[in-house]
Amino acid sequence: MEKRKTENKKLPERISALRQMISGKGVSDSIEERYFAEHSKETDKFLCGEVLIILVLLMISFSVEVFSDNVYIVRGDTVTKVFSGISIISLIVTLLIGMSGRNRYRPWFRYLASFTVAVANLVLSAYMTYSIIPILLLPIFLSAFYYDTPYVIATTLLNLIARAIGLFIYYKNYLTIDYYYLGDAVYKVNAKNTVDVIDFILLLVSGVFCVLLSGTLRKAMEEKLRKEKEKAVMDRDMSTAGIIQDRMLVKQFPLRDEYEVAADMTPARMVGGDFYDFIELDNDRVALVIADVSGKGLQASLYMSQIKAIVKVYAQSGNSVDKIAEKANSYLTAGAAKGRYFVTVWVGILDLRTGMLSYTNAGHNPPCISTVGSPYGFLNSRVDFVIGGKPLIKYTEKQIRLYPGDRIFLYTDGVTEAKNEDGKFYGDQRLLACLNEQTDAAPAETVAALKNALHEYSGNAEQYDDITMLSFLFREYAAEKVKAGRSFPADAEHFNEAVRYIRCECEKIVSRENILKDIEIACSEVIANICSYAYEGKAGEFEILTEECGQDIKISFTDHGRPFNPLLNATPDTTVSITDRKAGGFGIFIVKKLMNDVLYRYENDCNVLVLIKQFK
């Protein structure tokens, strides 16, 4: 119970500390405390040095006074000797306190030191005059570096009083020839009197100067401290922004049979202007995004976060890639950041059922692509204007079909423009060479390999730009959910029935007659080939499967006949006459011409031929 009460009492303190940490007050306060502690530490060292100098001089003077009859140092009376001994002891104690680590930073130490030094100066003034003028000036000037004007004034007055008392003792005991009569209009003055007057005036002027100096130093210190506080708060904010930005990036990618993906971003500063994104739009479509914001630092990071959110929202709203770019550009060119930043973006949407990749490139580096069995090369296509540069820009949608085993690698210019110690860029060719060493590697291994290669190439050279990359491997087509299929005997009697069935199913999806006609002709050629050659005169069946896949309609033909890939047939020479042309290959040639794509695979002892026609 007592423990719980104690914890409850401490709770408000914890909440207050948490609020200070969030608001940044704790950061500023800690900086100020550290700054003054370090400054006091350095100034106290000088003060200890001054005490040591005064102590040495006093001990020398005291020793000469007691043990010799040196004519250059005037002998003092018993009172002066007693004060000399007391002053030496107090200086030793003060020096020990100042040098002890436990007490060095106590605020009263400087006052103790100033008092003991002033008393020692009093004693020295009673012994000698000319030689201690620099020693008297030292504590006054040193006091200005504590940035405390009252302390400077007190030090000056203390030393003036000590000097006056010391001179009084000096003249009272030893001035027998040079004197003046009080009340007389004429004063008897000699050189020694003149120097003492100048000495006194010098102390006074030095005190005034040090008062002004302490105010100036205080302002300079406060300005420097203000900048350090601002920098500390900025560093804290940058660090927080970096953590937030890192958490905004996708780290855990979906685990699916259809694909594998990995990515990495290494900012040049605490926060970066690059970003990548991987968005599952639905079960059959994914979006790949990579972008580079002009500029660096916190502002670019905030702009990056805005761009990332905009692209994601428009992609999830069902827009095509060109419309995503156009809407993002319209939003940014009309916003508060108009004209301040621009963004290079590459965004692609992949249909996992067909492998069709639709993409647009808004001023970004061309991706690298590798097809099965082929090395990486650049996907060069039209590059449109950057996003956020100017309003009313139209962007172009391009398409490419990916097949199982194909890879695509996205990156920012921080990769190719990474510099080594000689100032040379990493370049496109080194990028391709590194990727081509990883054609069979997993995406995560590809990213790690390129990251290590960049690190080795750069050496100790500074990273000037964010380094961002994303590697994607297309493994297989997505399983279809909605299928309409039917089996037919592979003979001429059922030919027309099969064609009518395809026509009927396609009419449920496609309304344009010209597209329906192309599908009907192409499917007739495929059915004729299956009936004529698949089972080599024996009885057999084939299955027809029609399905809608986004903007495409897909018709699949499956038979259990002998393995045969019609796509391997040589393309017939259409420039020669029919009589001179070799037999075979013309039917599949017509199919390829009428369809957008034709795919073949042999699986589960079956031939599968897929015709894809875009109807939207």
Sketch the topology as an H/E string, one letter per element.
HHHHHHHEEEHHEEEEEEHHHEEHHEEHEE
Uncertain runs are: 1-5, 7-12, 14-27, 68-75, 175-191, 576-581
Helix content: 40-55%
Multimeric organization: single chain
State the shape.
rod-shaped
Sequence of strands across the biggest β-sheet: 1-10-9-6-7
Number of helices in the DSSP assignment: 15
Percent strand: 15-25%
Q: Which structural class fits the helix and strand makeup?
A: alpha+beta
Instruction: Note the gap between the termini.
Output: 74 Å
* Main β-sheet description: 5 strands, antiparallel
Number of DSSP-assigned strands = 15
Radius of gyration, Cα only, in angstroms?
Answer: 45 Å
How confident overall, as mean pLDDT?
76
What does this structure look like?
This protein is an alpha+beta fold and 616 residues long. It is built from 15 helices and 15 strands. It has helices at 2-23, 25-67, 78-99, 109-127, 133-143, 149-174, 191-248, 298-316, 321-333, 413-416, 427-436, 443-458, 495-507, 513-534, 586-594; strands at residues 259-266, 274-280, 285-293, 343-351, 356-362, 368-370, 377-378, 398-401, 407-411, 467-474, 484-489, 541-549, 552-559, 597-603, 606-614. Strands 1-10-9-6-7 form a 5-stranded antiparallel β-sheet. Helix 2 (25-67) runs antiparallel to helix 3, helix 5 packs antiparallel against helix 6 and helix 5 packs parallel to helix 7 (191-248). Residues 1-5, 7-12, 14-27, 68-75, 175-191 and 576-581 have low confidence and may be disordered.
